[in-house]
Amino acid sequence: MKSLDVEAVKAFVAIADLQSFTRAAEALATTQGAVSVKLKRLEDGLGRRLIERTPRSVRLSAHGALFLDAARAFLSAHEQALSSLSHERRHFVLGIAAHVAGPEVPVLLARLNAHDPCLTIEVRLENSRVLLDAFDRGELDAAIIRREEDRRDGETLGPEHFGWFAAPRFEHRKGEPLRLAALSPACGVRDLATRALDQIGMTWTEVFLGGGSSAVDAAVAAGLATSVFSRRLAPAGTVDIGERFGLPPLPSSEIVLHSTLTDPKSKAALRTIASAFREHRA
């Protein structure tokens, strides 16, 4: 009867998540050679190739894709078995920018809980600048935000592309100010929009809404105004009106993960966060 080696399965999941033997070794605090040996041991034991490796890419084989969910479940059961003998509870405060949080957030939190059942997760939603300031003050263990122009640190999780979205029936008459809905003067995405409009000399008038992102979504979906959204998070039923009304192109940004955690369990939790975010976006 075949049995699974926990460390070998961990190596496989890390390689699958990070798509790199080097990054997997860093995340597991070991060497690239050791990761390769563990993967080979797992593949030999299963009699299946799990990872396809070329000079330019590392990706799951067909068998690896089938095995990945089961491997995660195996590691989760292993962690839960160990945690059943421990009463240690840990608290993790994660900040997620409101304009970044999307459908991957429940997946991310479920993955974290499965990875470490003793981990209590507190999530704070705010704009990127507020979260970055809180992170710098030590109030957050980690933050997923849009990259700020004055910061180059943090782990890049993926690109973020923006567009001008409105209801299909939205009308803007030439010569009149563009009706723009925004969250607040402190919102970085608002600054992105107004700066782009100012650069081409297009006048705009702002609809200030006190109800948060849901109020902005409702105003845009109702055809009352336009707003800048990430292309993956635009409200349902809206369309990109940039070309139709001659609105300026918007620069892309990046989503980054900031953290100062260094202990092995916390680093593993961060790897889980990053991989769940990348996996959903892919």
UniProtKB/TrEMBL annotation:
InterPro entries: LTTR, LysR_HTH_N, LysR_subst-bd. Keywords: DNA-binding, Transcription, Transcription regulation. It comes from the Bacteria. Residues 4-61 form the HTH lysR-type domain. Pfam families: HTH_1, LysR_substrate. PANTHER family: HTH-TYPE TRANSCRIPTIONAL REGULATOR LRHA-RELATED, TRANSCRIPTIONAL REGULATOR. This is LysR family transcriptional regulator. It comes from Brevundimonas nasdae.
